[in-house]
Every structure is written in structure tokens, then in C-alpha cells.
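Sequence and fold
=================
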Amino acid sequence: MPTETFEFQVEARQLLQLMIHSVYSNKDVFLRELVSNASDALDKLRLAALRDDSLDADTSDLHIEIELDPDARTLTVRDNGIGMSYEEVGRLIGTIANSGTAAFLKELKEAQDGAGAEGLIGQFGVGFYSGFMVADEMTLVTRQAGESKGTRWSSRGEGTYTLESVDDAPQGTSVTLHLKPADPDNQLHDYTSVWKVKEIVKRYSDFITWPIRHFPKAGEGQETPDAETLNSMKALWARSREEVSDDEYHELYKHVGHDWRDPLETIRLQAEGTFEYQALLFLPEHAPQDLFTRDFRRGLQLYVRRVLIMDDCEALLPQYLRFVKGVVDAQDLSLNVSREILQQDRHIQMIQRRLTKKVLATVKRMKSDDTDKYATFWREFGAVLKEGLISDSGNRDALLAVASFASTRAEDEPTTLQEYVERMRDGQDDIYYLTGESRQSIANSPHMEAFAAKGVEVLLLTDPVDEVWVDAVGEFEGKRLRSVAKGEIDLGAEDDEEADAEREKRTESYAGLLGWMTEHLKEDVKDVRLSTRLTVSPACVVSDAHDLTPALEQMYRAMGQEVPTTKRILELNPDHPLVQGLNRSYDEQEDRTGLGESAELLYGLAVLAEGGQPKEPARFVKLVAERLEHTLRSE
């Protein structure tokens, strides 16, 4: 196949120019990225060979080589891993289409400092192209394991790249950087220097389990110099705590978590006895943008006796801990175990239970010992952790112990359910809550008026999952979890004969209006009644105690489940002038055409007040406009 020349996309050119003219102070990250890519290629080959006995690939001495040529000013990173086909090179290397280029450039412009900008290289998977920070030209030669022909890719980063098939490529991938001219005033960035390469490997790649070798250039009388291994290759999880620094833990996290930031917390676990395994887990500091998407890659790296057998082993942690990154190294599992077998393996189930309890215990410790760190964790991952309240009844108490919620007690101080219960007033039997899109919308809800007037604390739940877990949990320490927007509310009204007589009298005076409105609005509501929860607003809509809320109905429909639309209850505030005027009009008027429109308006206002939308917005707007016009004419 002849050599073909292709053009980079516009955004790819921008990225390449950024790398070529980079002003980053720390250009060392390019070697970290190339070594990391090589390590991934070796991991993939070992895994592929375990799964496919017929794969024609040499796995006898998997390693990474770094070759330096000061005279030619080249640096080559070579591996004998999985390699790439011609099509893969064109798709993954040539176009940069899968590297999140647009998002990378956007984030780069917003980076506030050089360190943040450098970190973005790893975050967006553009590590290969970071080589252009130090090179005028890059050449990649690769041959996929099991194939007979290889591929050469080359570019000077000036808008085009070439692709050609080659016959003599060894298995794996080699990346050769034709380095920029040396800067005599800055020897710290001489990447043909052995000591410089050793420093970078020790700093960034010492934890990699494959040997990273450097062959010194042959001198006089030495034809085949011995290779020097630059990394320790000792798995961090197999070393004692005293032997490993925080920086080493952080670099391992960045490698397995594909993150450029340090982790929020590091968790070590070692199980001994009849079934032995070691685990090194990390809690990220920030939630990835795709955490709640179906395509989110979750799971831990699973090793068996230091051999990687699975990159994303989902069976090691429950779904609601999908943000946790790390490795598990077991001693007694089969090397050819499949995902299906893992889901049923009792050892894996035992590991999952132990790891889950360890993670939750760590979060609990953070909550008591480091409130700032816990606040960061809960802000980023609280919503996904609450999924466990639905799916993991065995750990529900542990989850409730670490969960915190906004409440009306204090704007900046979330509370636990335990703290809420300890503050409950005498005679209060329920834990009150209200769900909504934001704290502000909940705080302004008409449903909150009586609670605010009487100083009763209400939990403010703003995550979509809150609509579900409160029903799944039901109660806490014998106190029922109760929505202030469902059922009838009794906040301890005065219980004496005079008050009872007054309430009965008022109910009788509104009986006609309530019955008529129930009939007039029967397509939208199941009942119209007087409210005990309103003090300011004229009306609100509530659900029956056991009905689905509109938000929950919408959530089920979004998941493809058919649920019937539930009619709700319209509550009127008998102390509001608008409702009182409506009642007088009902008693005085025989023609109730205008009264019917007023009833529709009142219902529409109640729906709007809770963040909903009238069934017929155009008709609602028309009625409002007509009433305003009539009011202005009357003045």
C-alpha cells in the first residue's frame, strides 16, 4: 500500500500548534504519557493472550524500552504489546477525533495556572500529542499482535500526517521523537540525557509493573551493553505503608483513574486467611462528567497474582460506588475467569462486601475527622451514593450514617437524619421533607408556609434520586419520612372546643364552593379541600399520601415505564382574600361562567407555584390577560 497523506481536522491543528509552541514549564509529562500508553498496550496483550490461546503473539518478555540518541537527537519509547492495525492508527492516532479535542481546548483556555494546564493533557487523553512539546517530528511504527504487516504514521504537526504499511515492523509500538534543538542555557530539559529520563521515570512511572529498560549506547569494546531497568516494578499494594509515599499513591491513581488530579482519599486493605487479596482504592476529588450516563466505565482493575486479568471489573463494587478507582490483587482466582463467572463467584462477592464496608467506613471517618474533605466528597458523590439506599438494604444503615441533607435549619450546614431526630419537637412523629429542583424553589414552595410559620424543620432534597429513596427507606428510628406535599398535614393545631367549632363552621361555609370546584375541575383534580399548610398563598396542589409525585411519574416514563397519570388534590387557603372573594361570588352569583374561569386560574397558579406547567398554557395566559384588562378598566 503506497504512502498516503491526510490532513488534520481544524481543532486538531489548533491542538498541535498549542503543543508545538507550548510554554508549559513542565514538559516532562510527555514521557509519562508515552510510557503510560506503552504500559496499557502490554496490559491489553497479556489480557488478550489469556482470553485467546490461538493468538499468535510473543508474551515471553513483555517490556518497555527507552532508547536515546544524543547525536541524532531522538528519543524512542518502544513496547512489544498489543499494537494497532492500519485502521486503528488512522482512527485513533491520525484524527485525534476520540481525544476530546474541543473540550480540551475549552478547558485549557479556562485554566488559571500552568500546573492546571499541564494536568489537562492527561485528563483529555491527548497524551500522545504532548510529544510535540519537545519534538519537531514524531514517527510511530506499530504492528498488531497476530498480524503480519505493520503501519508507519508520521507528522511534523503542521497540518498533515502520513500513513503507510510496512513489512518489517516488530510486534508492538514504537514512538520516535525527533527532538527540538538543544537549549544550551537550559540543560534541565535535555531529553537525550540519561539522568533526565531516569528522573522522569522514577517520578511518574516507577509503579508500572512492566520493566522500563534503557540500553546504554555501545562504546568502544562493548558491542551489546546490558540493559538497565529504570523502575522498581513492585506493586504499590504489595509494599508496606512506610515504603510508599503519597506522591507514589497519587501517580498510581492518575494511571488507573485516568485523572490528572490527586485523589481525595487513599484506602488500603489486605485480607489474609483462607482467601487472600490486597486492594488499593481511591476516592476521586471530582465527579466525572459522565458519572450518570449509561456509557460510564466503572469497575476496578482485577489482578491475579500480579497479572492483570480485567481492566474494569464491575463485580468488585456495587453500582452506587462506581466512582471508586483502584486495583484488587487476588491470590486464588482463575486466570481465565470471565465477567459472567465473576458475578457468581463467592470469593468475588466476599471481596465486594468487604470493599463496600471499607469505603463506607472511610467516608464515615472523613465525616467525623475531616469535615472539609467530607463536604467535598458529598458534594461530588452524594447523589450517586444515595442510590445505595434503594439497591443495598444490607448497608442501608451505614449509608444513612454518612448521608447528609440540606434543611431549613441552616443554609450552609447540612444535617444527618440522626441530628434531625435529636432536634425534633415534643410530639413530632414524622421527619418532614420536600423534593424539588433547587433549594430556592423548595424554600419558596407554598407547601412550606405552615412549617416556616411554626418553625418546624424540613429536609430540602434536590437530587432526582431523592424522589425514590425516601419511599424505599420509609422511616428512620421509628420516625416516618413524610413529604410536606403529600396527604393532610396536622402541625398540632389548637385542640379545644372553641377552635373545633370554628373550624367546623368555616368548613361548612366553604362546602358549596369546594363541591362545585371539585366537579368543575374534575378532569384535573380528584378533590378540592381547605388547607392547613398554607399561610400566605391562595392555593396549592398536593398528592395523596400513597400516590406517585409528578416528578416520580416523569422519571418512570423517562425510563420507558408506563404509569397512569394521577390526579392530585387542590387545597385552598380559607384566610386568603382571593379564596374568600371566590366563596362570596359562589354564594351570590347564579351565573358561574366567570367563576369557572377564576377556579381554573387559581388551579393554574397553584401548579405554577410548585414548578409545574398548566395543561393548556395558551388558555391560561389568555385568561390572565383578560382578567388584567378587566381590572385596569375598572380602575
